[in-house]
Design goal:
Largest sheet: 2 strands, antiparallel
Structural class: mainly alpha
Mean pLDDT: 88
CATH topology: MetI-like fold
Number of helices: 12
CATH class: Mainly Alpha
CATH superfamily: MetI-like
Strand order of the largest sheet: 1-2
Oligomer: single chain
Low-confidence stretches: none
Helix content: over 70%
CATH architecture: Orthogonal Bundle
Strand content: under 5%
Number of domains: 1
Shape: globular
Length: 264
């Protein structure tokens, strides 16, 4: 509790003051909030972050469900797949960024060299290529979380449910719709909650791979916040952005939590 409240109180304190030389404070009230909420750059960064979260969720949730459904329920092969799924999750974020930075290198990277051989130069200076790289990287890194959560949810379904569905002649789709999906709803909401928080706060991977470029095309709200705080050293403005950032995440997570509680 203390480890989270005290830093947040410090950020709130910075957000209502103008900071000089790191230790001189002048009270400015809500000026930084007004400046942030009327800044086009803030809304552009926010829209990029929300767009990224929406795209990766639209890919990872269905893909995770599909892979979980295809995994064997028991045996050594099941254990092998679980360990295989855990590998990306155990890889540190900065290592993931460097792995993909190397992979897409047009001179030495496996993906970069392969695409060059096919007549397509893998150019991270192209905004579409940069976005595609970060999205594919995130899908590789985090789909396994959805898979493992869904797999655990599927294992909790009694065999009698499947036997009843087979007796009724239910198709695979109807078995999923009426037997598996109702048991997965709570798990999927948890997966959605965790993945939204992670994807909306993503920083390390895009910083390593694209540095927010080309231009500002992959400058998400997290990168914009760090640049404001550490490069421009506008601690008051950075504090205001941090508070707004936190409130957005809190609002979305609270909404999903309420849906989860209602479902229970």
């Amino acid at each position: 509790m203390i480890s989270s409240v005290l830093p947040m109180m410090t950020v709130v304190n910075y957000s209502v003051q103008d900071v000089f030389a790191g230790d001189q404070f002048v009270w400015v009230g809500s000026r930084w909030f007004e400046q942030t909420l009327t800044s086009p750059e803030f809304y552009q960064s926010l829209s990029r972050s929300l767009s990224f979260s929406a795209l990766v969720l639209l890919i990872e949730i269905p893909l995770g469900i599909l892979i979980a459904l295809k995994m064997p329920a028991r045996g050594m092969l099941s254990n092998f797949y679980i360990v295989l799924m855990a590998v990306p999750l155990l890889t540190p974020w900065i290592v993931v960024g460097f792995i993909w930075k190397v992979l897409v290198d047009p001179v030495a990277g496996l993906i970069g060299v392969s695409t060059t051989a096919l007549g397509f130069t893998y150019d991270l200076n192209n905004p579409v290529v940069a976005w595609a790289t970060i999205i594919i990287m995130d899908v590789w890194h985090w789909t396994a979380l959805v898979v493992l959560l869904c797999y655990a949810g599927l294992q909790s379904i009694p065999k009698e449910y499947y036997q009843a569905a087979a007796i009724d002649g239910a198709s695979k789709w109807n078995t999923f719709r009426y037997v598996q999906y109702p048991k997965l709803k709570r798990v999927l909401l948890i997966a959605l909650l965790l993945r939204f928080m992670d994807s909306f706060m993503i920083y390390t991977e895009p910083y390593v791979v694209t540095r927010g470029g080309p231009g500002v095309s992959t400058t998400f709200l997290s990168l914009d916040l760090v640049q404001t705080a550490s490069i421009q050293f506008d601690l008051g403005e950075a504090g205001a952005i941090s508070v707004i950032y936190f409130l957005i995440i809190l609002a979305v997570c609270w909404s999903l939590f309420c849906v989860l509680r209602t479902d229970e």
